[in-house]
């Protein structure tokens, strides 16, 4: 692929997203991003393109990280490109690679303005490596789609215009133009899974199947297409399974469990993967027995399926998603409430306020402990547990439901039972999921 063909490929890959307010190049200083930056500058000299800038993320994980910054500054100065350097903190954890990636993308998201593009230089060999890595980790269709050619990112869009280009083409381009780049010493450490695939496995595959990277990249594209079809099917199924929350003041995402049971097991899992993607990390294949146990449990059971970031529960014919805040054990402390004319914030439990004439006496907000009895004028004594059952309050909400006490006696239940002869206790529960995700 000569320079003209290379630039034509680059322009064709970018055409759907141009013009843009600005084009950023994720510039590490390595071979791939150096070629992409150089080619974009050459293309901008012959085509009407938006302003091209570069961003270098300084992770501070290598002793030579400061030298990389200097190298990137030198390259950008020679090309007449403005360079933005972002220093990030990488939180230690079980996976340093993942933590570095999250920090890097955090910097990208903070940088991108509306309509701007971030170009990354992953190529065909990177795509082949990714699909092999995910295949060996047991990924499904979504994971085997590997890296998308483009996707939304913050207010802008991430684009990978070189995914169809072999690394050898980039190497040849760099040598033709006498480009200089840096090498990450950690790339030679084959104890790391990706490096092992890159250094040991892919070269062996090429010796037997020279087109192996292209074939694997094509397989990733086919998986991406299959994933689109699965998402479209999930959206169709979601239309028939959407359901509002059990009470209008509970903003919980819900599905109709009866409608969900009418689908095949494969379509149930497909719909749940699609639905749960907004709420947390998806379960792997080993954990789907939890869904079957919840789905098939007896009517009077209280099953739960614990997932990363929360859990699924049942309430009548509803399947309810509860974020982790609602799943923790609750032992809320009693809070004095001297001024009912002002809303009272509750620690990790939203806010209460009172509508109407305030009752006299020492007032406080407390929570159910068990065995509470309410005296109702003209209606006798009522058991709190029975009142909550009759009101349809989900079992998992009852421990957090604020109670209004006067001199230690329950006189009102938030959103459920008014204070006789006075007013209403209102409660806005903590909202922990993003707007638009309900149902």
Automatic annotation (TrEMBL):
SMART domains: TilS_C. Its EC number is 6.3.4.19. It is found in: Cytoplasm. It catalyses: cytidine(34) in tRNA(Ile2) + L-lysine + ATP = lysidine(34) in tRNA(Ile2) + AMP + diphosphate + H(+). Keywords: ATP-binding, Cytoplasm, Ligase, Nucleotide-binding, tRNA processing. It comes from the Bacteria. Ligates lysine onto the cytidine present at position 34 of the AUA codon-specific tRNA(Ile) that contains the anticodon CAU, in an ATP-dependent manner. Cytidine is converted to lysidine, thus changing the amino acid specificity of the tRNA from methionine to isoleucine. This is tRNA(Ile)-lysidine synthase.
